[in-house]
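Quick log. Single chain, no ligands specified.
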Amino acid sequence: MGKKRKTLQTATVVLAFAAGLGIAGAEERGVTDTTIKIGNIGPFTGKAAIFNPLNYGSAAYMRYINDLGGVYGRKFEIIFGDTACAEAKGIAAAKKMVHDEKVFMITVNPCSGVAMAAKPTFVQEGMIWSGVSANPKITGSTGSGGDGAPPEYMFHVTPNGYFSGLTMGKFIMTKPDAKKVAIVAHTNDWARGYCDPAKDYIESQGGEVVLDTAMERGSTDATAQVLQIKAAGVDGVLGCLYQPELVVLLKDAHKYQLGVPVIGALGADFGQVVQQVGNPDAVNGVFFQGHLYKDKIGAPALEWARQILVKYLTEDELPKEGDPTHFYYFGMMNGVGVVEGFRRAGRDLTRESYMAAIESLRSFDNNVSAGSVTITDDQHVGISDMYFNGLDADGNEIIFTAYGQPLH
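-> predicted structure:
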């Protein structure tokens, strides 16, 4: 633990002792005797609003905890802020949460570009941040895709792009005789945060990335990329793409009879991708994606989470049709980890006691994710493992621990 953290924790102990002697100490921002104010920011409008189930999943769990009486008598006051997945609007939303709303912490924050743009504000203000944005540079240390030590008050209780990308590389290399792999990626830090560690792993195992080609945001045709991939004669494709472009890639891969597995990154919802592709032949036995959860959505192991989502979200927050999709559970995973920090921090809540509590997580089972959560003072990314989704020839969802190896 760094010298700054130790000094601040000592000051916290002194203040707590002084308070016991009747000496007034400074109030903690966003905390009262009965409430904890949480800033929940994300793309509630715009094309990236497909990601806002992440925000709602986290909120649903906190509302559930409120219904149980809160944490040490304090209930969560959730303040939503719209970033529209645009950097300027995201910075404005972050500053409003810090300066006007005076929240204790900011959570969820999908869209890596927005999180990176707002990060200087969080660091300068000492704002606690627990998000789901994948860019490894947000919270990662040198060992998880970041630069140097992690920011003091910023952490993931979910995977980041580094670990998600690493598992993509591991998955394709468990395919029998896999040697040659192609990458199709956006030209941004988010995509490289996935595909670079995947590429490094593939090459460390004797494989070769024979093609690393770009597909820009907003692309509506992947003909050029698919024909390049066919010509390269690969054994699999890694698609470090957001959902709309991943759908386009899968459609064109089928159109041109590519005939190799396509593994998608976590910038897409598995069920929505399958639905939007709209052709079983284009996805069954072909499309795979990282799966963060203990079992498939709808399985008994996740029924408790589904019940919370359905009960504590409004009609406008839930899908227009069907049950809550993957991103809702991803958001809940974040919510469970955030709330556990408050449980461990105790009644005398400060930023220092909260971060010390988060950094005490070791193999914590959030009852949602495939991997457990471990965070230390020099590693602020909590989950490094996940399974993979796929569909069999009949369109039945299968959870895989490795290529061709079902969980059940």
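DSSP finds 13 helices and 13 strands in the chain.
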